[in-house]
Amino acid sequence: MTGHPIYFLWATPRSTSTAFEWMMRQRGDLSCFHEPFGMAWYQGPEARAPRVAPTDRQRPEATFEKIWIDIQEAAEKRPVFVKDMPHHTDHLWSDAFLERITHSFLIRDPAKVLASLHCSYKKAGMEDGFEAQEISFGPQQALFDLLRALGQTPPVLDSDDLLEDPDTMVRIYCKAIGIPFIRAALSWEPGARDDVLWYDGNDEIWHASLRDSDGLKPIPRKHVDPDDLPENLNLHYETFMRHYNSLYTHRLRPEMVSG
């Protein structure tokens, strides 16, 4: 298939990626997909997640092949933006798959990701409810390194940079992937976020901040000490930090803005 560009933002959980996706939805010039391969990974007939989805949450139609076809068919009509996580697709990384996509990455300090996960999983009653692969730091680096070996160096956006100066960093990001910057997309009305809600349906746990927000606005960054993390999460920190740092050196910087 040919068609319009397919833009992928490869993220980790709890990295402000859904807020970023919500901003991209406000543009009005993109067909947007929210973690479509995650649906197959958790709920589909070829599910690869470590936990079996409850029967009432299983989606027999959600095969990896069908989801990829749906994305490509959407790109026949207009440009497509997809937010997903690398571990959902690591078995699909053929040259043909990767070459059809315009790739970008959103990274976040692992201590902040793990602290946010701990809070969310605690609310959900699943404090030990993930495996390291699901946090996607390793798959993020693996995909980034693979793309560089294929001759690409995709743009990398750091969550702290984004939240310190959304206007500047979104402008730089848009230039990096080749789309116009639309400042109006950085603002929206608070309310339901059904378009980015799936799997457990628990908006109160996963998307409460996004639901109550009215845009991407500067937020002072706070330090999270990894030593304050619960032991089961702290064990992952150093490994995750190595993966994070490998992409951090390639991140987009505020001084790259022009025009």
Automatic annotation (TrEMBL):
SUPFAM superfamilies: P-loop containing nucleoside triphosphate hydrolases. Gene3D superfamilies: P-loop containing nucleotide triphosphate hydrolases (3.40.50.300). Pfam families: Sulfotransfer_5 (PF19798). PANTHER family: PTHR48312, SULFOTRANSFERASE. This is Sulfotransferase family protein. It comes from Roseovarius phycicola. The lineage of its organism: Bacteria, Pseudomonadati, Pseudomonadota, Alphaproteobacteria, Rhodobacterales.
